[in-house]
Structures are given as structure tokens and as C-alpha cells.
Amino acid sequence: MLDRLPREVIAMRVAKELKDGDVVNLGLGIPSLCSQYVSEGKTILYHSESGVLNYGPMAEQGEEDDDLINASGQFLEPTPGMSFFHSADAFGMIRGGHIDVTVLGALQVSKKGDLSNWMLPSRGIGNVGGAMDLAVGAKRVIVAMEHKGRDGEPKVVSECSFPLTSPTCVSLIVTDIAVISVEQEGLILRETAPGWGLEDVQNETEAELIPANDLKEISL
Amino acid sequence: MEKVFSSFDEAVADIFDGAVIMVSGFGGTGGTAQNLIVALRDHGASNLTIISNTAGLASLMGFGTLPGHTAVDCGMLIDNDQVGKLIASYPVSPSPSKINSFESHFREGEIGLELVPQGTLAERIRAGGAGIPAFFTPTGVGTQLAEGKEVREFDGRRHILETALKADFALVKAHKADTLGNLSYKGTSQNFGAVMVRSSGISIVEVDEIVSPGQIESHLINTPALFVDRIVKR
To answer: Is A146 one of the catalytic residues?
Structure first.
């Protein structure tokens, strides 16, 4: 049995994609971990739909303030240089192309970069929240997720069968076994977890993967 | 022109059955007019249309709620069968195994839903107060939320037509008001409230403190007084 990367390592790999000066919006789950692993010396401005830019660490226990939360409802520490705004501005920033990178979770991503992440068809109702706005508005959409679903179903698929969040929006997929970029010619397998080969990753992927010329092991 | 009301009950007394009501808050207790919501529950107006980001995540799961605190949000009005329709971006619990009262009412066909992407919701509310009847947005294109909506291409990209939202009343939480109705908010608690006050016929604002004009420095006023009709102190 090949080892899968823990969630923290997925987040570390995504953190490598963030550049000095980027304005970044992190979604729930694995994406929310990325900020912990950005290398020192890079200044990232984190944006949250709750109406804050340039937030920092979570508040210490006993220091929580319900007037200072991120989009996950976590309490933030007051940080010098943070700014606040209302929801229409929070989303004007997103839709207006002012967010460089958003990192989102996904239920399915297709070979064309279509994203489904807001509704399980079996439930018949879902929360769209800010996902559609982020998928459409951010300059770059990175998906950070486990490669397969809870019941072992593939999540990187030829066509999304779940309701779409947005068509053709994802540019990079980082999972617990692979890094895959979405290109004109299809899904390019760029990196694999230690010990995993093209065939191993393909076996867990419904869509066809094209190996990169320089396919290599994931490095942090 | 007296905007200061002495009680929450008095401030919501004229809300009528079938009214459209905007309820501020992102999902947690910050920016949520908890006392006005209790007053509206006690008042009992029914068949309301509620416009809110969520159906109440604070009361459901302690989202954005200080440890040990009990949260009130629009979930209370749904629990009390006062809501006929919800317009929201995040109506159900994030976990399929945890059902909120909105979801159970929805499954029984007792409450309607208009699901709106969060940014589109905020912009529709903003537009409602800014004299913009409708606008085109790229959000939602190619998804089931675009079904039945007009599509137009601008700069080679498809957009869908979304219409403005207005309400009869807004229940909003701010930090401070002066007696003229100027408001300031704390931290992330502007969220939907600062746009809802603009697009509601009567905006009712619950605040931590009411001060004289001048005691909120003019450059720190987030909401100018003309958007505010009623103020009640917590």
C-alpha cells in the first residue's frame, strides 16, 4: 500500500504556489491550513468574505471577539494593517479580479477544470456561499483536496456529475497523491507523492492523465 | 424626527404578515441583531420572506459565537414557523447529517428557497439601495443557478442578469449610532448590515451604544444617517 500525504503536506505544497505580494482567499478545510506553511519573507494579504483583508493568526483562547471572524467563523487576532469592509465590497474585490489566488476544496474537478464543490446530489440542497464568486473572480483557482472521496470514488473526473460551481475555472489540483495542472490539452500530471507512479495515480483518477515531460516527486 | 426607540418590541411593532425582511449577519453573532429578532419572534408576524446570508449558523452550531454564549439568529423565526420564504446563500448545515429547521421545513414543502451566490446576494442588496434595478454578473454562469436568466456576452465573457433586492424592513446590528442615525461598526460585523440598511423601506438598527452627533468622528462613520430609520440600544 502506497502512503498518501497528510492534509498538512497538501497545504504545504499549495503554500509553495503563493507568491510574495499575492492577495489570497483560502476556503474551508485543507485550504485553510495553507497560511501556516508560507515561507518566511513572503508577504501575503489574506482576504476573507466575512469582510477583512490582511488577517493573521487565530485569536488565543480567552481573547475571542465575535466582531472579528473569518469566513469559517473562526476568531481572528487583531493585526496591524488589517482592514474591514461590508459584503458588497468583499465580493466586489473577488468578482472584480482583485484576488490573485483562491484555494478551494472540491467534490469533483473535471478534465476541463470544471469545479463542483457546493452540493451533494444525494442531499438535494446545498450551500453555495461564496464559492461561485471565488471560482469566477479569482485570477487563479487552486483546488486542494483528497484525491478520492470518502467511499473511494474518484474526484478527478472526465465530466462533473455533481452540480457545477463554475465551468473551466481550476488551474491546479493538489491532492494527497499528485499535483495536476489543467491545460488546453488536458490534465497534466506534474508531480506524484513519494513512491507513486503515473499508473498508480491514474488508477485512482477517472479522467485521463498526461504525464509531464519532467514528471517528478512532490517537493516542498 | 425621532429615530431612537426605547424598546425592541416598539421598534418592530409595525412589521406586518407577509413582509420582506432583511436580516444582517454573516453567520455568527457578530453583526446579528439578536434582540430585534427576539422581538420579532414575540411579535409573531407570519409568512415573512427573510433575506439573510444563512438560515442561522450561530444557533445551529455555534458558528462565530463566543464560547459559552447562546446565539439568536434568523433560525429562531424559522423555528417559530414565521417564515414562508428564504433568500440566502448558505441555507443549510454544512454537514448533511445535521439538519437545521430550515432544511426540515423545506423538505416538508413548508418554506420556499431562493438560493443566491453570496456575492450576488450582497450586490443585489446593494443595487436595491442604489437605484440599479438589475445588473450582469459572471457569477453562476454555466450552473443551475443561471437557469432561466438572461445571458449576455461582454468582453467575450458570458454574464447573467440578476435583479435588485429590496425589503420592507431590515434588522441590522451596528456598534454605535448617534441620534441622527449615523452608524459605525466593529471589525467584520459590517457584513450584510451595511448594505441592507440601504435597500429596506424601514431600517431598524440595534446598537451597543447611542451617542450625540459628533461623538462618532465623521471620518469613522460607515453608514450615513439617511439610511437609518430606527435605532434601539442593547
So the answer is: no
Chain B residue with minimal CA distance to A168?
Answer: B142
CA distances from B231 to A43, B30, B169, B182 (A): 41, 17, 13, 10
Q: How many CB pairs under 8 A join A and B?
A: 164
Residue B63's domain comprises: 4-135+164-233
When pLDDT is averaged across residues A93-121 and rounded to a whole number, the result is: 97
How do residues B8-46 score in pLDDT, each as one tens digit? 999 999 999 999 999 999 999 999 999 999 999 999 999
Q: What is the CATH number of the domain that holds A107?
A: 3.40.1080.10
Q: Do B191 and A129 touch (CB under 8 A)?
A: no
**Number of domains chain B contains:** 1
Check if A48 contacts B (Cβ < 8 Å).
Answer: yes
Q: What is the ipTM of this complex?
A: 0.97
Which triple of cell numbers denotes residue A142? 487552486
Average pLDDT, rounded, for chain A: 97
Task: State residue B1's pLDDT score.
Answer: 76
